[in-house]
Amino acid sequence: MLRRDVLKGAVALALKRDRLDASIALLGKATGDGRVSAASLHVRQGSDELSRAFGLAPNAATPFLLASITKPMTATAVMILQDRNALALANPVRKFIPEFTGGGRDSITVKHLLTHTSGLPDMLPENDALRRAHAPLAEFVAGACKAPLLFKPGTQVKYQSMGLLLAGEIVQRTARMPLRDFLRKEVFDPLGMAQTSLGLGGRAIASTALCQVSGNDDWNWNSPYWRDLGAPWGGAHASAADVAKFCRAFLRPAPGILKPATAAAMVTNQTVGLNQPWGLGWKVQPAGFGKACSAQTFGHDGSTGTLAWADPERDLTFVLLTTRPAAEDKEHLLRAVSDLVSES
Length: 344
Fold this sequence. Notes:
- It contains eleven helices and eight strands.
- By secondary structure, it is α+β, with helices and mostly antiparallel strands.
- It has a single domain, classed as Beta-lactamase, CATH 3.40.710.10.
């Protein structure tokens, strides 16, 4: 009986390794045939980790444009200020941004911004025009302060990048320093995220993985304007290993970053009773990550072709950064690799 159990365990272990090998093979094929220019995979469980670069990524330390994985980073900056009693989630946004008033905005709280329940639009109607004009973030903030609300605050969850824009503005006005500097000082440096920055962080675009975008618009994802704008909702750059460090800070809260209770609250459903579960900055929908993820899994994805999640039940983190826009991922490569790793 003992020998049979040992054999069954060995077979199960081999099958799990097969899934990890299959995920690597999928990425190798996708980059080999040119569908994906570059990719970087980082998987860690406990002290065991795997880092692998694919395609045009020269090594696993290559930074990618994260897109919306930036959002929980911005939310973390807000929560650091809450831990220091500089603000509270229940505070109205107008306390920090006085011009954000009228039209139902007075009832919008800081928490509404972080849980996508503010009623603000995802993008401003004039988003493309602002980017085409190389507008500074201050003009996006001015637009968000005037944008009509889509619904009564707190009544539903609807994804809103402009909420995270205003969250970043609150950090800047409260801490009296640019959000990119605050994140570097209070999050990235303490966590050892040496390849991470909001904006370019002084690096050349050529040293990063270039997004697979068509055309030569001077405001697209590869342009100097967009890469260094430092959009609080989508402008961070990082290596896959650095994103994993950030995720793991919520599995094992790092001393000096957030209080343990605050870190736990960020990855707990804060929208009970509404149409969709959401944490504070983090997605808390395991079904959107790997199919074998536990109910406690949290994470985020990005439109540039990125996905990251952490499963506390198994101490497992997954980060996959690619250069192909998520909207063009027709064979669902991100999800396929994620599913395989979740089973491994």
